[in-house]
Amino acid sequence: MPKRIVDRYEHTVDGLVIVDVAARRVEDLYEDFDKTAPYHKKDLDEDLTYYLTECVREIGRVDFVIRFMFECYPSDEFMLRVRTSVNKFFIYQRELELGAMNKMLRTAVTLFVIGIIILGLSLWLNHLFAVNGTPSFLNTVFAEGLTIVAWVSVWEALATLLLNWPQHLFLIRLFRKIAEAPVQFQPPSDPRSGGAEALAESKQV
């Protein structure tokens, strides 16, 4: 990863990359449709989720912290809520991705097994036709058709695995990394406050 990408971000005194998030209120971090849900069960705002995942994707394997800044510095209770929300939300996203990966694996294995079974049937039929003499045109077409179907199923299984497995693994690791990231809070008067104000602006009417 080019060093200049990481240089776009501020760093802590320990050298950790800082992913800044600015919002007017703590409530702006959450989706509006589940206002009555407890904070630890609320979904994070879609824009915030996209912003965090893209930032972490961009900085790669570099260690980072998430730093929030609000118009009014939150109480200890609200800071705990935010930390818990970020952790639980991205753990939930990771679990969803694990479920999607397992479903993909089941599909790939099913296609592969079906393909192998059909391929075995095709080979058996070809052998049977050969033993019984010259096979008829229809028998030959049927056996070759089974062979084609078998290989299509096998290759579909391999393609599904090779194309989707790396992406699922990447997202699982990405969500875990965000869930485990330290969460800090910065007073609004701190001159170091910077980027990620798009979230706050998107909430303004």
Summarize the structure.
This protein has 205 residues and is α/β, with parallel strands linked by helices.
What is the alpha-carbon Rg in Å? 26 Å
**How much strand content do the residues show?**
5-15%
Read across the widest sheet, the strand sequence of neighbours is: 1-2-3-4
Mean pLDDT: 85
Tally of individual helices? 5
**Residue windows where pLDDT falls under 50 for at least 5 positions:** 193-198, 200-205
Q: How many domains in all?
A: 1
The number of distinct β-strands equals 4
Overall SS class: alpha/beta
The secondary-structure element order is: HEEHEHHEH
The dominant shape is rod-shaped
Overview of this structure, please?
The protein is rod-shaped. It has 205 residues and is α/β, with parallel strands linked by helices.
Q: Could you name the key traits of this structure?
A:
single chain, 205 residues, alpha/beta, four-stranded mixed β-sheet, 60% helix, disordered C terminus
Write the layout of secondary structure elements.
Blueprint lengths: L2 H5 L2 E2 L5 E7 L22 H14 L4 E7 L5 H56 L5 H43 L3 E3 L12 H6 L2
Parallel strand pairs: 2-3, 3-4
Antiparallel strand pairs: 1-2
Helix pairs in contact: 2-4, 3-4
